[in-house]
């Protein structure tokens, strides 16, 4: 169908994680860790030595891999690459911003909620009625 | 109630009386009720509310997991609970996702549905929030186990098969969990085990969140049109 995003059915997709060490460790304990033949992992541990470029590269890699269905990213890390996260609009992989130990979840910064929030703006309603 | 208040605060100002008057005027001018729009708006609001509630639950699960992890690190020693201990040899994830494309309200809307398959079990894990999605289950999704109704109606053998399949699955899950924990050594703190369970709970919530996100974006697309 024209204009329809293609979502291939996938019966064994991965969850990717871009977060601090404790969050990644916890999810690896839950069994989501994957290392492929080229030693590429489905997670990136962000610490004070991680550069913004590394985070950007990981985000771009995870969102273009066909075997990844959900990308978990700590919200404070997402804020470092906000322009990339907000510009992402594919249905799969789904980007979910999660809280971290030191940075609680803030719905005002969530890219998905920001996208739909304008629906409730008085200006947008008024302009639609004209 | 608190969640609803938080949602309204997040969403900002609701259109005031002057724009509500415009809305009423628009309804009167058109001479027909906007029932379809109202339903879609309600569906959208429900999905946003569900998303925020799930995120709240996820925060709690993660907090518990971090606390348990910190306790385990305290009792086992900081050098025994590190991400660097994880094996970088080739390995497949034990917990994966199944993604099925459900058609949105219109054929042009993609609406993926996610299901969690924990510890390599071919198991569907439907969210309690997303109960309505069960109606859209496609036959091609794999179903767990090999339990079938016997043709001669011998229910006892069916029950025995079900219980043995369940016991096998439970043993499999325990072995898989132990394997994941073994990265940190043979004897691990009970807190590490509870941390593992907390993060498994977080995974369930994350899959529900992904489905909620999918519903929200589908409703949003519908409303925009």
Report how far apart the termini of chain B are.
31 Å
CATH superfamily of chain A: ATPase, V1 complex, subunit F
Which residues of chain A form runs of ≥5 with pLDDT under 50?
none
Question: What is the element string of chain A, with H for helices and E for strands?
Answer: EHEHEHHEHH
Q: How many strand units of chain A?
A: 4
The figure for the number of domains of chain A is 1
Whole-number average pLDDT of chain A? 86
Q: Please write the CATH class name of chain A.
A: Alpha Beta
Q: How far apart are the first and last residues' alpha carbons of chain A, in Å?
A: 32 Å
Biased composition (Polar residues) (chain B): 146-173
Region (Disordered) (chain B): 1-38, 138-174
Protein name (chain B): Vacuolar ATPase assembly protein VMA22
GO molecular function, one term (chain B): unfolded protein binding
What does this structure look like?
- Chain A contains six helices and four strands; from the N terminus they run E-H-E-H-E-H-H-E-H-H.
- With 130 residues, chain A is α/β, with parallel strands linked by helices.
- Chain A has one domain: 3-Layer(aba) Sandwich (Rossmann fold), CATH 3.40.50.
- In chain A, strands 2-1-3-4 form a four-stranded parallel β-sheet, sandwiched between helices.
- The mean pLDDT of chain A is 86.
- With 225 residues, chain B is mainly α.
- Chain B is built from five helices and two strands; from the N terminus they run H-H-H-E-E-H-H.
- Chain B has helices at 2-11, 17-30, 35-76, 155-181, 190-224, and strands spanning 96-103, 110-117.
- Chain B has a two-stranded antiparallel ribbon.
- Chain B is elongated and about 60 Å long.
- The chains are: A alpha/beta (130), B mainly alpha (225).
- At the A-B interface, strand 1, helix 1, strand 3, strand 4 and helix 5 of A face helix 1, helix 2, helix 3, strand 1 and strand 2 of B.
- Strand 1 (10-19) of chain A pairs antiparallel with strand 1 of chain B, so a sheet runs across the interface.
């Amino acid at each position: 169908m024209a204009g329809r995003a293609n979502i291939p059915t996938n019966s064994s997709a991965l969850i990717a994680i871009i977060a601090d060490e404790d969050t990644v460790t916890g999810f690896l304990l839950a069994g989501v860790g994957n290392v492929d033949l080229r030693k590429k992992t489905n997670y990136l541990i962000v610490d004070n030595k991680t550069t913004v470029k590394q985070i950007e590269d990981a985000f771009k890699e995870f969102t273009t891999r066909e075997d990844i269905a959900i990308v978990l990213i700590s919200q404070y890390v997402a804020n470092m690459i906000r322009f990339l996260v907000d510009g992402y609009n594919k249905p799969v992989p789904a980007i979910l911003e999660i809280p971290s130990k030191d940075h609680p979840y803030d719905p005002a910064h969530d890219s998905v909620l920001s996208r739909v929030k304008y629906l409730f703006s008085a200006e947008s309603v008024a302009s639609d009625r004209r | 109630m608190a969640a609803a208040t938080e949602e309204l605060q997040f969403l900002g100002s609701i259109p005031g009386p002057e724009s509500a008057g415009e809305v009423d005027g628009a309804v009167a001018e058109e001479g027909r009720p906007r029932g379809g729009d109202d339903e879609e708006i309600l569906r959208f609001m429900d999905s946003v509310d569900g998303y925020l509630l799930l995120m709240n639950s996820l925060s709690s699960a993660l907090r518990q997991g971090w606390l348990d992890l910190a306790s385990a690190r305290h009792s086992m020693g900081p050098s025994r609970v590190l991400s660097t201990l994880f094996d970088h040899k080739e390995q497949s994830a034990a917990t994966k996702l199944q993604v099925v494309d459900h058609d949105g309200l219109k054929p042009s809307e993609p609406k993926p549905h996610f299901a969690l398959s924990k510890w390599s079990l071919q198991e569907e894990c439907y969210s309690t929030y997303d109960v309505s999605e069960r109606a859209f289950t496609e036959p091609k999704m794999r179903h767990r186990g090999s339990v079938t109704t016997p043709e001669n109606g011998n229910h006892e053998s069916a029950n025995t098969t079900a219980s043995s399949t369940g016991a096998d699955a439970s043993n499999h899950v325990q072995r898989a969990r132990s394997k994941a924990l073994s990265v940190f050594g043979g004897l691990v703190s009970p807190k590490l085990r509870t941390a593992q369970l907390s993060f498994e709970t977080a995974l369930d919530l994350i899959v529900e969140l992904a489905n909620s996100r999918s519903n929200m974006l589908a409703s949003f697309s519908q409303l925009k049109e």
